[in-house]
Design the sequence.
């Protein structure tokens, strides 16, 4: 082999290696690249949409990072936090506290609820080590039942709800949709600026940036280090005197509290709250977005969050329209949404496994190449 | 007069009626190095577990007698109490976080921290780690040990020896350390690493740290220890100064008879066809990379594979058996066997006793019977009785018990019954179970990797003899990998030496040690 040729092959190998290691995001970039021209949306429109959705979703997805660090996988515990956020919003709406104070108060109210739910979830997950993803999914179903019981039957009967606008006509229970007009986009609009026709919710982004800094800082704390240790080997961590169970519970509690905040940010942007379905798929979408961004079950970074939000939502915007143009059926969009998120999670998990195997194989490739060069 | 650092008085321990330790009395002074030797199952590890306050001891009914530290009676409720009292222990198995660097592991849960406003409010666990102080603390500990290891290297990427040193550095980094217990630390080390470890033990003792050192390599004891304590069947049979004794004497005390290294009885190597042929094999096994190996194994022989640690000898069986990523061609009985598919190998009547008994060798929570018979049942449908015309297969409990019993006798596995759990056996006896498991498979071809690791001097000959008998009586071709050349020369017909990931040469076992030595260093990378 000539020197030149060898260099080229190693460059090619590097590129292939990079693509292999990031196969999930690469696949989505390709899908988007194909769909964007077909969909016919203008770049300005797309940019606007993406910025809005980033402001809406990033905080929620950030709440997934800490449990991953503690080795508890992509975890549906956040769904519980989302419910806590919703309950807090119902109260604040009923009390007619408007604008930013309303949002802040909702966040404060959500904290004790999130903590309680997080403790419960963490305790149960400690009994199901190694099966956290599935178990947390089931817990989220169970708590959803409790949520319905509380919101549909107890609110207005046992728990005082004053305003009939959010009560069901029968006198108790909360309506299917709660209007959050009183605080709609109150965070987003404060300090918002327009750049070339794109509205940028500066305050929301500042909050997100602050949260990212907190996460970076958290990784460097003793607790963060303990979580990483627990995530990698519980037995060794325990032998070193780290309280494994407690550490895991704390990671879930942090996740639920952040998810509660995230859900409030999400809903204030939407402007109304589908009382019984807002949380039901949010976990799925957040996890899918994170995985699309290149995260795996045991490794996720802030970069994965941002990349994931952009790619996942870009695809949601353009793919249905592109699909509609191709098939002539506009309903395809909605099927697409759910289908794709479940699909993404499955594909990403499978790819994660193959990637692990491939990483092993690549070292072997080098050995084989070295053997050939030795000739 | 000053009380000695450590005093054990009439220590007794039984595991549910099975008396393991009887009336152990022992004293140890500051800076003294004590060598603890004894047969497999003599009770060495158990005694150390008592000293270190480990949970197994309390969960199995505690112990009798007194442990005195500096003349004060102590009774540790957990290893953390023992640590606080200045006792450190390096166990037979590693206890490290795989994805952490050496530094992070050395200071695990004892990281130097910086306070901040947040931590003042929300508690200590929100202190940030002081990375530069961590680096310094770790490198100090590494320096104390007197061995070069890279503090930033992640455990996963380390050769075994460095992992062992990381563990020791972790104990050394503890300020209050007064007594360090090392349970067979040299078993996984290369000769050079072992020598470095002995040096660092001397260093510790000169700094006033007392060391209890357990090993089956008796020469090491004589090289480094001040006194030797010999245990047999849970009793101390001898407690002497190391200068006053020698290996032969210690061996005799250990086993209660004199042991002669089994005379190498050589036969004419069988002139036969090739049963396995390996061509251009590469294996990606961390620390044991195989680069380019071609090798023919003759039917019915015992082929030894030797070489220095880290040169790739362990990679060969692991690669062929599909446990690590491998390439090249391997043909067995004229048929090519697919690499990277362990099950296929087992189906084609190959068996492997791994050097990693905890990782792939044993089901620790299962009984001996299950450990020995399970693979044979799983792979070859042995020990199964057809019922209802073969519709259901039923486990043949009696056959399982019989075969287990046979190997317990043959290998003299020390246990209370064939139903005992594997994790309740001593380290050396676990190793024997791994061998029995492979024998029960009755394969046509057997790889054994480091078969005598952790086995005492007396039982070594027994294990080697069992391998030889298996080869002669059942006609099984055996490839044995070992770092001890003498052991290979005792039972092998030919010995291949691996150096730098390649076969440096194959010699008849009768050739001189010098010839083998020269081959070992020929291509070292
Ligand atoms: N948890 C346990 N339950 C029951 N018996 C046990 C348990 N742990 C150890 N034993 C028994 O105690 C005896 C002594 O074991 P120990 O591990 O102390 O031996 P050892 O001297 O360290 O041997 P080796 O050199 O093989 O490591 C053995 O017979 C073993 O079967
Ligand atoms: Mg032992």
Sequence:
């Amino acid at each position: 082999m000539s020197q030149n040729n060898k260099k080229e092959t190693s460059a090619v190998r590097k590129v292939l290696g990079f693509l292999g290691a990031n196969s999930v995001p690469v696949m989505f970039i390709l899908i988007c690249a194909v769909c964007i021209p077909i969909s016919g949306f203008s770049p300005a429109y797309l940019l606007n949409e993406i910025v809005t959705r980033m402001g809406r979703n990033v905080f929620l997805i950030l709440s997934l990072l800490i449990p991953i660090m503690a080795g508890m996988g992509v975890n549906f515990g956040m769904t519980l936090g989302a419910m806590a956020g919703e309950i807090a919003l119902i109260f604040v709406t009923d009390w007619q506290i408007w604008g930013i104070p309303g949002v802040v108060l909702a966040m404060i109210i959500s904290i004790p609820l999130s903590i309680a739910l997080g403790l419960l979830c963490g305790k149960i997950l400690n009994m199901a080590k190694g099966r956290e993803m599935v178990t947390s999914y089931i817990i989220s179903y169970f708590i959803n039942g409790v949520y319905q019981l509380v919101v549909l039957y107890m609110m207005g009967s046992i728990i005082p709800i004053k305003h009939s606008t959010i009560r069901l006509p029968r006198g108790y229970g909360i309506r299917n949709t709660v209007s959050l007009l009183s605080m709609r986009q109150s965070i987003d609009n404060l300090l918002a600026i327009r750049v070339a026709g794109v509205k940028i919710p500066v305050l929301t982004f500042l909050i997100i940036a602050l949260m990212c800094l907190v996460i970076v800082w958290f990784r460097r704390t003793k607790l963060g280090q303990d979580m990483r240790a627990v995530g990698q080997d519980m037995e060794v961590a325990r032998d070193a005197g780290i309280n494994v169970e407690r550490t895991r519970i704390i990671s879930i509690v942090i996740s639920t509290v952040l998810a509660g905040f995230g859900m409030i940010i999400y809903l204030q942007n939407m402007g109304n709250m589908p009382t019984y379905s807002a949380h039901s798929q949010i976990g799925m979408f957040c996890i899918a977005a994170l995985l699309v961004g290149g995260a795996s079950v045991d490794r996720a970074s802030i970069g994965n969050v941002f990349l994931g939000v952009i790619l996942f939502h870009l695809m949601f915007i353009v793919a249905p329209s592109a699909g509609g143009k191709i098939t002539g059926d506009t309903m395809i969009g909605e099927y697409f949404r759910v289908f794709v998120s479940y699909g993404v999670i499955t594909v990403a998990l499978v790819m994660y496994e193959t990637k692990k195997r491939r990483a092993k194989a690549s070292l072997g490739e080098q050995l084989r190449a070295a053997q050939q060069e030795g000739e | 007069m000053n009380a000695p650092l450590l005093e054990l008085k009439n220590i007794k321990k039984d595991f549910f009626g099975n008396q393991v330790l009887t009336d152990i009395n022992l004293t140890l002074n500051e800076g003294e190095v004590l060598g603890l030797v004894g047969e497999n199952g003599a009770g060495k590890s158990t005694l150390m577990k008592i000293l270190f306050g480990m949970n197994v001891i309390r969960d199995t009914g505690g112990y009798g007698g007194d442990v005195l530290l500096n003349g004060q009676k102590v009774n540790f409720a957990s290893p953390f109490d023992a640590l606080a009292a200045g006792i450190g222990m390096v166990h037979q198995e590693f206890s490290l976080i795989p994805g952490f660097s050496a530094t992070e592991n050395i200071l695990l849960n004892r990281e130097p921290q910086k306070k901040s406003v947040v931590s003042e409010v929300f508690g200590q666990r929100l202190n940030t780690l002081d990375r530069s102080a961590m680096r310094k603390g770790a490198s100090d500990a590494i320096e104390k040990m007197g061995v070069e290891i890279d503090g930033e290297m992640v455990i996963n990427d380390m050769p075994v020896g460095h992992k062992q040193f990381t563990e020791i550095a972790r104990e050394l980094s503890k300020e209050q350390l007064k007594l360090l217990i090392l349970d067979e630390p040299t078993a996984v080390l290369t000769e050079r690493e072992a020598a470095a470890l002995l040096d660092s033990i001397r260093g510790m003792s000169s700094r006033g740290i007392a060391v209890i050192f357990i090993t089956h390599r008796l020469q090491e004891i004589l090289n480094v220890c001040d006194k030797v304590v010999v245990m047999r069947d849970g009793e101390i049979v001898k407690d002497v100064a190391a200068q006053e004794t020698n290996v032969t004497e210690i061996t005799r005390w250990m086993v209660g008879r004199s042991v002669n290294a089994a005379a190498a009885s050589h036969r004419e190597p069988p002139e036969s066809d090739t049963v396995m042929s390996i061509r251009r094999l590469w294996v990606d096994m961390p620390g044991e990379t195989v680069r380019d190996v071609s090798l023919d194994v003759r039917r019915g022989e015992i082929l030894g594979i030797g070489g220095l640690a880290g040169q790739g000898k362990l990679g060969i069986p692991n690669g062929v058996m599909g446990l690590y990523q491998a390439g090249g061609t391997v043909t067995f009985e004229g048929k090519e066997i697919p690499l990277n598919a362990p099950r296929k190998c087992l189906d084609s009547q190959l068996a492997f006793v791994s050097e990693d008994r905890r990782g792939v060798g044993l089901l620790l929570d299962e009984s001996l019977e299950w450990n020995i018979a399970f693979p044979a049942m799983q792979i070859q449908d042995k020990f199964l009785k057809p019922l209802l015309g073969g519709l259901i297969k039923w486990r043949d409990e009696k056959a399982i018990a019989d075969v287990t019993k046979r190997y317990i006798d043959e290998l003299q596995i020390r246990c209370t019954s064939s139903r005992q759990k594997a994790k309740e056996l001593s380290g050396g006896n676990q190793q024997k179970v791994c061998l029995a498991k492979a024998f029960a498979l009755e394969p046509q071809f057997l790889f054994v990797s480091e078969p005598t690791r952790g086995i005492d001097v007396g039982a070594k000959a027994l294990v080697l003899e069992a391998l030889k008998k298996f080869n002669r009586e059942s006609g099984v071709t055996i490839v044995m990998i070992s770092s001890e050349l003498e052991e290979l020369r005792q039972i092998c017909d030919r010995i291949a030496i691996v150096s730098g990931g390649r076969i440096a040469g194959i010699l008849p076992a009768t050739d001189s040690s010098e010839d083998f030595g020269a081959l070992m260093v020929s291509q070292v990378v």
User: Anything to note?
Assistant: Chain B has three domains: 6-86+176-255, 272-349+443-525, 362-442. The first strand of chain B starts at residue 6 and ends at 15. Residues 383 and 457 of chain B are 34 Å apart (CA to CA). The pocket of magnesium ion (ligand 2) is lined by residues B 44-45, 92, 183, 426-427 (CB under 6 Å).
